[in-house]
Amino acid sequence: MRFQPTQLVLSAAAIGVAGIVFSQSYTEAVASDKATFVATPEQRLTARQVAALLDRAHYSNKRFDSEMGLKVLEMYFDRLDPNHTLFLKSDVDELTKKYGSTFADRLKKGDLSAAQSIFNRYIQRSNEYYNFANKFLSKEVNLNRNDSVVLDREKEPRFNSAAEQQLYWERQLTLQIINLTLGQEEDKARDELYTKHPELTKGNDLILGEDRNPREVLLNRLNRQKEQLSRIKSDEIMESVLNTAMLTYDPHSNYYAPVQSVEMQVQSNLQLEGIGVTIRPYRKNPDYTQIVTLVEGGPAAKSGKVQPNDLIMAVAKDGENLQDVVGWSTREVVALIRGKRGTDVTIKVKQPNSPDAAARNIVLTRDVIEQEDAGVTHRVITVKPEGSNQEKRIGVLEIPSFYLNYQARRNGQDYRSVSIDTQNELKKLNEQNIDGLVVDLRNNPGGSLDEVAKMLGLFIKEGPLVQIRDNRGNVQVYQDEDGGKQLYSGDMVVITNMASASASEIFAAAIQDYGRGLVVGSTTTGKGSAQIQLDSLALGSATLTQRKFYRVTGGSTQNKGVVPDIPLVNIYEGAEFSERDQKHAMAWDTIKTSPYKPEGKFSSQTLATLNQQSKIRQTTNPQFVYLDTLNKVRNMEDDKKAVKLNINERRAHQKQIEQKTLDAENARRVATGNKPYASWTEYQAAVEAMFEERSRLKNDQRPKLPEDEAYVIEAAKIMLEADKLQRFQELENSR
Asked: Is 202 marked active-site?
């Protein structure tokens, strides 16, 4: 097999796969009370270097001119104030008129004064908000109002006046108090149930909920943010504007201030003690910290309860009471989560667009997350095809990422990689005479391009695997040139979801294009670009997008992603974290097809039949029915819709959500021969206890969650049906 010798970074997971990774600066959520700062020579040089990189080296070949500078300025306002609640329209108009035409030129000269001036206005408006909030919360808040508020104002115009703005602040603060009140009611009910029935905890420690009243909790959040006003350093202000400039070109070009850069290096040594998640401020509301990805083999992933896109609401260290962390910076959240190996930490998380009462407490035991813990695994399941009593043995490969120990390989040492591990696992499966193979790429964030190419060579006879176009228009083709060797040549199917990204998309696309197998599940992320790591800046480091990936058919995986042949229930329905949801994401496009010879082809008739059969099974499978119902329940809570500021109406709405969720859970329990839960509180207690218990089991002892395993079984059934249909059609065609 012939491969490009230069290693490309396909995703954040390729930089670091342990502990917690900072994806964005926390200056998006906080500010500084320093009126001015004098840029150092190193800061000015760094600004010039970043501007030059964007002007000359980014994949898009867009000049960093006055027009692009205006876009950066617009993005800067949105990065500092994503919900359009701080800057007035007059602020944006004034500062745009003053700096818009010269913003790019200033950065190219290393002049950070315009960014500082805008940041100062942000400071001013932030302080006005905090002062208003403190005054408003100093007295009792009316929780039985007749008006409403829309929380998601990302696409709404900015306020024209301070009076209009303050009316919104009042409504927004009122809703926060309502939600905190209802969340505390839920926590109290759960704690009382645990106290009366300690057997429900299954011997696990009881973590008590927040004991302060809602106004105290909210005031504490706001005061912590205000305290951070005095702690922002000039490097972090520089980072806020330079990172914005890079993000205006695409979502995967980033600048990291020195403290960030050091943190990224810490991640790459694969020896961090933590829970194994990547986090960043939530784009729609930076007060919340969002979990982006899970590190396979880490405590969070092993728990089975933490999901990408979860929002962290509270943290409890080593059996202490939960500490509310809404409004905390990512660095502060990280400091609270991290700890010594073997110690416990509890995180309280919820999915976006869900009420606070739907949050769940998850106890995790900190561990050292090493690459060796995150490898490929195999197992064999038995599946009965439709209309048959004969069981088929189906191999399952779970591939957490396309990992590679770069340092060990560079040093000439023995190293682990996904292709090496997959070869070993495939050999074991071949020895067991399997009747088909399921490759599970769900939540796989990507990794090494070399490795995905080697992986494909195990399944494809020969030919091009992926095309790579650079910023000069040059196209390179990764080829499998091993003379038709295949380690596995049998039937196969690939499972994807919205969290399958980058290298995993390349793999799924090639399997689909060559007709080697079907792709089932959900449309992938759509990250079809590669970044170079730049460590030679005067201060900090950066990643810069320089290449884009294309299928052998000529279509990009960028933005569009890989669309499955057979869709399954999408657990991320309504979530906004794919490439298609990002601002300034590069567009989907095409180049020439690379000549290749498909090894098989699934006719439109076959795919239509498979789709119909799968839909029928999904509507009768208790696990898929349950997941589909949860999607509908989540859609009942939408930040884009107006919310009534009446606690009784909110409580009734919340109870409706809880009841529908409980009904969905009980329906699947009854369908699978289990006893239903008597109440929402009992259900929540049981789930928390179950997942805490699971988190303490070793990986090989931990049973698969039935809702996860449903995808594997359905994928296997689709594969077996496809084989039968293809053989039938071939027989018909031969007549």
From this structure: no
H/E element holding 687? Answer: helix 680-695
Helix (H) or strand (E) holding 477: strand 475-480
pLDDT single digits (tens) 65-76: 999 999 999 999
Ramachandran angles phi, psi of 596, nearest 5°: -150, 160
- The answer to whether residue 194 sits within a structural domain is yes
Residue 548 identity:
K
CATH number for the domain that contains residue 446: 3.90.226.10
Question: What pLDDT score was predicted for residue 344?
Answer: 85
Per-residue pLDDT, 556: 96
- Answer yes or no: is 603 within a domain: no
Cα 594 from Cα 605, distance rounded (Å): 26
Lowest-confidence region among 14-18, 123-127, 500-504, 730-734: 14-18
Contact 104, 139 (CB under 8 A): no
Note whether 363 and 378 are same-domain residues.
no
675 vs 679: CA distance, rounded Å: 12
The answer to whether the beta carbons of residues 500 and 525 sit under 8 Å apart is: yes
What range defines the domain where residue 484 resides? 374-598
Of the listed 513, 541, 548, 556, which one is catalytic?
513
Q: What is the Cα–Cα distance from 554 to 477, expressed in whole angstroms?
A: 11
Task: Report if residue 108 sits inside a domain.
Answer: yes
Tell me, yes or no, whether 210 and 357 share the same domain.
yes
Q: List pLDDT tens digits, range 22-67.
A: 233 333 333 333 445 788 999 999 999 999 999 999 999 999 999 9
Residue with tokens 């944006």: 92
Amino acid at 465: L
pTM equals 0.83
Residue 513 annotated to the active site: yes
Q: Which residue in 108, 305, 392, 527 is the catalytic one?
A: 527
pLDDT in tens, 454-495: 999 999 999 999 999 999 999 999 999 888 899 999 999 999
Window from 382-386, 509-513, 668-672 with minimum mean pLDDT: 382-386
Which of 261, 329, 502, 578 is an active site residue? 502
Q: What is the DSSP string of 166-196?
A: HHHHHHHHHHHHHHHHHHHHHHHHHHHHHHH
Q: In the annotation, is 592 catalytic?
A: no
SS3 326: coil
Q: Is the Cβ–Cβ distance between 622 and 602 less than 8 Å?
A: no
For residue 678, give both structure tokens.
Answer: 């008597």
